[in-house]
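Lab notebook page, bench 4
Experiment: in silico fold of construct C2
Operator: M.H.
Input chain length: 377 residues
Purpose: comparison with the prior construct
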Amino acid sequence: MITGQKPVIRRSLAEGLLSCAQFVREDGEQLAFGQCLHSFIAAYTLLCQAKGEETLLTEVSSLAAEAWARTHGLKQSRWHEFLELCQHFAETRPANLSSLMHVEHTVTHDVGFAVLTCTMDRLDRADAGDPDEAPTYIQISDWKTERAELDHDFQSHWYSQMLFLSHPSLELVVFAVHALRDWWKPEPYLFRRGELDLWWEMTLTGLKARLDVPNAAPVGGPACPGCAKRYDCARSTAMAGSIPETEDQADEQFQEVLRLEQAIDVRKEGLKRFYSGHAERVVNGKEIGFLTPRDPRLVVTVQPLELRNWLNRRHMSGDAVLKIDNDQLGTREIQDKLIEAGLAKREYSKPAFKWRAHVPARDARRQKEKEKIDVSS
C-alpha cells in the first residue's frame, strides 16, 4: 500500500520482505476466519465497556452474526465453529475494564522512506498509575486462532518498539499471546525501553534495502509458507509448495501420508527379516542390522531402600534413587486423595499435531474434565 510517495508497511509485510523482496502476503479463508474473530472480540469488548459490564453472554450470538455477515472470504460451513469460539471467549475471558486502554489500536510511525504501522488487538495499562498521567507500563494482548506453536518474536519486537516510539513515558512493555483454541498460555515477552533500539535500527536498514531494490531475485526461506507466490515461484521451498489450500487437498495429502507410513512399516519389517540372518553393515553412512549398544548401561541389583542407605552413609543424596510407584498411584481413588492433599494435580500437556482414532464419547468426557480443571485452577 502506498500513500503519496511513501509505502505503508504493516508488520506482517515487513517480516516477509526482510526474508524475500518479492514477498506478497497471501489472503485466504484461514486469514478471513481470524479477522472475523478479531472483529467479534473488538465489538464484544467495546460493548462491555459501553455498558460497564465484565461479561455480556446474551449478546454473543448477535455480535458474532454481525461480524460473520460483514467479513468476506469466509467458508460458510465454519459458522458453528466460529460461534463456539466466540462463546468460549466470552465465557472464559472477562472484559477487565479497569485496566483497558484501547481495542484494535493502530499505531503508525514515519521513518522517512516508509510509513510503518501495526494494529494491536488490545492494550491494558499495567502500572496501576493515575489515569490522568501517561502510562509507564503497558501490556499488549494478541489473540491467536492458530493451534501450532508459531514464532512471535518479530511481531512482539515490532509492536513493542512502536509503542515505545509513540509513548515517550513508557518504561516497560509486555507482549502476551493468547491462544484462543488451547488451554496452555505461551510465556509473555517483556521489553524495557532501549532494549530494542539496536534491533530496530537493523530492521529498518534491512527493510530500506529491500524497498530500494524491488526487483531483486526471490529467496526461498521462512516467508514462503505465507506468500501468495509460493506455488509459482521457482525458489519457493518444498514445504511451502505442499501446504494444502482446501480441505479436499488436505484430505488427499493426509491419505498419501498414511500410505507412506504403511510403506515405511513394510520396508522396516522387510529389513528386519533380512538382517536377522545377515551380519550388520554400514550403508550410506549408517550402521544397520542387529546392533549391540556401544556403551553398557547401569543396572541396580538391590532394592531402592538399600541403595538409598548406602548413599546416605557416604553423605550423598539417597532420596534421588527413590521413584514413585506408578502401580500404587495408578488408581483413580489414590490420585484423587493426592490431589485433595495438594500433593499432585492433573493437567493437560500442550497440543501437538498427530492423528488418532476419533471416539466421540471419550472426547466429550475429556472436555468435561478440562472444564473441571479450568474451574478449579
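Observations: The first helix runs from residue 11 to 19. The domain at 2-241 is CATH 3.90.320 (Lambda Exonuclease; Chain A).
Next step: discuss at group meeting.
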